[in-house]
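Troubleshooting: if your tokenizer reports a length mismatch, compare your output against this known-good record of 349 residues.
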Amino acid sequence: MSRRAATLTVASVLVLVLAVIGSFMRVPYVALMPGPTSNTLGTNDKGQPLIRIDGRTIYPATGNLNFTTVTYRGGPGGRIDLFTALRGWLDGDTAIVPEETIFPKDETPKEVDQENTRAMQDSQQNAEAAALHELGIPVTTRVVVEGVQKGRPADGVLKPGDEITALDGAEVTSVSQVTGAMAKAKIGDTATLTYKRDGKEQKAALKTVADPTGKRAVVGIVLSDQYKFPFKIDISIGDIGGPSAGLMFSLAIYDKLTPGPLTQGKFIAGTGTITPEGEVGPIGGIQQKMIAARKAGATVFLTPKDNCADALSARPDGLRLVRADTLHGSIQAINALNTGNGAVPACAK
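Known-good structure output:
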């Protein structure tokens, strides 16, 4: 055998060995890829309105206000192999990130999924509140039990979903009111909670115990503020988690509750968290979300201001980036796009 042939043979064997090793070697990285994008003005996979509003006049809405998502491969329960990671690094549509970016070391994949589900639920509620706030429609809050700590006085008495309406006879409508009143209680005092369960009002007299610091009186419940809306809003998007669709939900609700289509038929996509007051916050996976939006047909992408730098460096051709600071500002920007009058805030380096 010639030297050249021998060299090629050895090289081929080495490549084969590396290929075998690469296909079995699991690495602690996650591949992020463009996910599904859905029109918040359209229907879900069951043919039902993605956002349904009952008890209020709604108006026809045309065009697209798409929220975007990111899918992933990998994680503690099914790590990707080395070759998949290498291909991802070379693929402009895919981002390879350390596993702990998605799955913190102190949390299980199940806990991460549960957190994402809660984040989506909170996002929907915040989006509803933000849209109604923008429209000047009054919204009130209620105090709901989110969790009960085992071994504490409330264990076996209260349960998640109970609505706390009063503490020691004083009406409460926010978590801060409850925590403020409990801050004045002494360890060993009795706290009388009035609560609703299945529409029925009940009372529970619970003797307080010390918290882990030994300084505060507690009964062992985790509370959250939930909004009471004057009419019913249902958002049905299936098995999608995370808070990043908040802005687009708010815009769709606003569009349905106001005369005339907000988009004027344009294909607008976007992303961003939302607060009840309408402030837009940053998200992850901006590159993959822009790619998904452009592939779906979007020509305008609403981008949280803190994501603008990353978005500019990876903007797909044909996609205009519009900076989104607030829900109000986003509505103004869309109106300016439609009329050609007024400034349209853009992402800038």
